[in-house]
Every structure is written in structure tokens, then in C-alpha cells.
Amino acid sequence: MDRARKQTWLAGLLAVGAGLAFATCTVPPKVLFKCESGGRCLQPGYVCVEDHCVPPELLDGGADGGADGGVDGGVDAGCAPVDPGWSWDAGNRLPKGWADFGVAPSGDGGYGYLVLAGGATPSGPQPLYATLNAAAPPTWVTSNTSAPSLSRMRSAWTPFADPLGFVMSGGVSDAGVYLNTVVVASSLLDTAQDLAPMATARADHAMVGLDGLELLVAGGRTNAGLLGSVEIYDGGWTTLPVLIEPRARHTLTRLSDGRVLLAGGEVDAGVSDSLVVFTPGDGGWADLGAKLDAGRAGHVALSIGGGQVLFVGGEPTGKVEIFDPAAGRVVQVYSLGFDAIDSSAAFIDEKGMALVVGSDGGIDAPPEAAWCNACGCVPAPRPSAIRYGAKVARIPGYNVLLLIGGRDPRDGGPVADVEYMLWP
């Protein structure tokens, strides 16, 4: 295939991969990885064509199909996600409308508990709610908590789940005050207590767990602007070297080799596409040199197995990206099939499947959904309730997925709707 025909063929293939395959609800195209420097491909047998590593079967098929996209034979049936056929049912509503909360598993994973905490309701911040069991539909119970700070954490705070419970840090109070408080809550123990406060009050920051009970907090914002400060908790807070660039609404993800990946966020110049790693022990930050395919802020980063990380949603992009720590960069970019400025995602199984739910902020339709893995996305059933900002969560130890709360786009008020999926 000559260079001109390769260009035509690849352009058609990428166009089909980004649009037609999802618009017609077919399975996604064969994975196209970006080439290494010098035009090398890490994948055996792949050939670098216009900065993308192309599998040999597509090259063979492309000689006959350059004008129509050359996708014949280009589906990896062993990797592409498949709609399992589950559907949404209406669940027991929350006791009141609820938005901007955090949700995470609590306990040792075998009890079927989820913790919901913080956020906004018509009557102010909520102390704590949790699933009582994994029945269909799950029921809700108010936990008897007394941590003074928990009732003040209203918005823009960062949750993190560890084996002991649900850790929340910072945020903005009802009075608009930036907080440095830290709370750990457990539905299993029916308790919530204040930990030592952070050195710096902050909101829109990121937090991740390290070894043992260590917590790493980075970035965020205050009334004075974006923060670059970093702290680590190990019984008390210690200040670490600052970020390379101050930012907020970014993500921190623990990689399988122990490092922490920082991705995207709001920076002074706009929305960042940077990828930065933190190595525990040396306390320093290093720019990977690689970039996200598009800048993201307010996105979701989800570990999907095999050490890979899935990025989805955020502003201003709706693309899905897969980061491979072994390659040190994003190795795949594909379409979610719909715009998802706000999004939530939950890891489903050991095969790397995730459910992504998101919306573009429209006022006349419920959010959309997709099943995604490292090879692409296929449409999932659409929820029924019109809302945005709903949270997806899996009840630990049970095959139950919940879509919880959020806001009504017509008036911005918190909603109490809960929908669930139950599978064999």
C-alpha cells in the first residue's frame, strides 16, 4: 500500500472508529495504539502508519478497503466489551434529595455496605447514609454519627475509601469557608470521627491512599486561587514538595508499581493535559513527558485491571483514554459514544469492564451509559430519571450496581432517585 493510500485508509479507519461504529451500536474497532519514537510499535506484528500502530490483519484488509475505512476483519472479538443485557430498575429512593456527595465501599468488602456522606440536600449537609443490605432493591439506613466536621462538609471535598471506612478531606462549608478538616466514617462500625486537620484548607483537590494508613493530598484551591501544596498523612500531616504546577479538579491514581499518577486538572492557563507521577519514599514529582490526548478537569480515573487506568468525562472532552504504566503513556483513545461532561464510573469485574454514566448537562433527557474496557465501549441501557451528577457504585461483594442521587437539570435541585442493576 503506497503512502497516499495508507493516509486515505487510516483516515477512514479512524473516522469509523470514532463515529460510525458507535453511532450504529456495533462493536468497536480494533485497537490502534500510538507509535513509539522512531516509528516503532510495542505490539508484535503491528506496523506504524501515520503515528498509529496498526495490526497486520487490518493492513492486509486495508488493501481492498482503503476508501471505505478498511475495517473488514478489524474487530477483536476477544477483547471488545459486550453488553451483558442487564437493565435498570427503580430502587428505594434516598430519604431526601442529595447531590455532590461521596460514595464508597466500607468495611472489608464482604458485608455489602456503601457509605454516602457529605454533599448537599435541601436541609443542608447530611451526616451519613449507608446501604443496609444487598437485597433488590437495596435499602437505606441513617448511621448514628457524631463527628462535628462531617455536618459542615458541603461541597468540593475529596472522598477516599480504605479498609477501615470512608475518608473525607477539605471542602467548602455552607458559609463558603474552605475547610482543612478530615473525617473517617464507617457504616460497618456505625461511627465517624475527626482526624488531625490538614495544614492547608482546600477544596477541589485530590486524595489517594498509599501503604498502610497513609493518605496523599495534592493541589486544590482556596479563596486565593489554585494550590500546589502537597501533604501526606501517617498519624499526622507532613508537608511534601509542591506540585510542578498548581491545579484543581485533577485525579490521583495509585499504580500497580506503587507510584501515584496525577492527570489533568484546572491550571492557570486553562485545562491541563499533563501526566505527572509521584514516587513514595523520595517525595518528588516527575513529569512523564507523555500527555493526555485532550485536557481534562473534573474527570474520572478508574483502575480497570492489568495496571491500566481509564480516563473518562470531564471538561471539555468526552473521549475515553487508556493509560498503560508499562508504556508510560496513553496507549488508546476512543469514543464513549456520547458527550459526558459530568460522569461517574464503577469497576465491574476482573475482565476490566466498567460502567460509565454521564451527561452533557441537557435538561430534557436522562444521562446516557456505556460498558467500557481497555478496547472500547458499547452502549448500555439508559437510566430513566432525568438528572446529572448521579454517582455509580457497586455494592461490595454483591452483583448490584446503583445509580444514586444527583441534580435535576431543570432547576438544579438535589434529587432522591435511585436506580439499580442486579445481575446473576
Short description:
The protein is mostly beta strands and 424 residues long. It is built from two helices and 35 strands.
Largest sheet: 4 strands, antiparallel
The total beta strand count reads 35
**Which runs of at least 5 residues are low in confidence (pLDDT < 50)?**
1-32, 60-77
CATH homologous superfamily of the largest domain? Kelch-type beta propeller
Global morphology: globular
Helicity, as a percent range: under 10%
Briefly note the CATH topology name of the largest domain: Neuraminidase
Itemize the secondary structure elements and their pairings.
Blueprint lengths: L2 H21 L9 E2 L12 E3 L2 E3 L1 H10 L23 E2 L11 E4 L8 E5 L7 E6 L8 E3 L15 E5 L2 E5 L12 E5 L4 E5 L10 E4 L5 E4 L2 E2 L2 E2 L3 E4 L3 E4 L10 E4 L5 E4 L2 E2 L2 E2 L2 E6 L4 E8 L8 E4 L5 E4 L6 E6 L4 E7 L6 E6 L6 E6 L8 E6 L2 E4 L11 E4 L5 E5 L13 E5 L2
Antiparallel strand pairs: 1-3, 2-3, 4-35, 5-6, 6-7, 7-8, 9-10, 10-11, 11-12, 13-14, 14-17, 15-16, 17-18, 19-20, 20-23, 21-22, 23-24, 25-26, 26-27, 27-28, 29-30, 30-31, 31-32, 33-34, 34-35
Verbal overview:
This protein has 424 residues and is mainly beta. The chain folds into two domains: 3-65, no CATH class; 89-422, Neuraminidase (6 Propeller), CATH 2.120.10. It has two helices and 35 strands. The protein has a four-stranded antiparallel beta sheet, with no helix packed on it. A hairpin with a 4-residue loop joins β11 (182-186) and β12. The longest helix has 21 residues, at 3-23. Residues 1-32 and 60-77 have low confidence and may be disordered.
